Amino acid sequence: MIRLHAVPGSRSFRVHWLLAEMGLEPEVENYRIGDGSLGTDDFHLVNPAGRVPALEIDGMTLIESGAIVEYLCETRSEHGLGRLPGDAERAEFLVWLHYAETVATCIQNLNLQQVFLPDPAMRSPTVIGLETRRLAKALKPVAKRVEAQDYLLASGFSAVDVMFGFGIEAAFHYVHAEKFPTLAAYQKRLAARPAYQTAFAAQGPDTIYKQDFYEVPVG
Known about the structure:
This protein has helices spanning about 10-20, 40-45, 65-75, 90-115, 125-145, 160-170, 180-190, 195-205; strands at about 5, 25-30, 55, 60-65. With about 220 residues, it is an alpha+beta fold. The chain has two domains: about 5-80, Glutaredoxin (3-Layer(aba) Sandwich); about 90-195, Glutathione S-transferase Yfyf (Class Pi), Chain A, domain 2 (Up-down Bundle), CATH 1.20.1050. α5 (about 125-145) packs across α7 (about 180-190). The longest helix is centred in the middle third of the chain and has 27 residues, at about 90-115.
């Protein structure tokens, strides 16, 4: 049994998509940020931190999307989505795997300001402007990397692309896609993959973003 605890539109999509790339179909239990479902005693038995994703697999429960992705790649290496120790691309694989969290952290900070604070008066135009610039700067190395090749690793598609697929789609709620044409093209390539589409359809509607784009408010 494989059970994925998820919030549609969150980092849990990384895990769902990677499982789909491996031909694995998890049982999905969806939650919603802000409705208390992540704070219940039952969910805290799954993850005491009250966060998703959490993946029940191989007789244990794993948390943290990067750790889950790395575990799946190493325990199911026959799918060729990771780069194991000794592989010439191992170091690059690890760098991109964890750099995805640099991008995700900028997005998380913007989500807090633009989406989750209930009163617009609580939002800081200064912080939002700063985090938007940080996000744009963090995206530049990714955009440069996919300028001359289809995926982040020269050998082709891998789990690091899965890690970034969620982040780039979310980033375009805060930075204009037309300013990053190579990233927009890269995201289209990722979204065209059958496993991406399978996971996207299965996760249910996005419960985080209420609008397509969030402008930096005028302070």
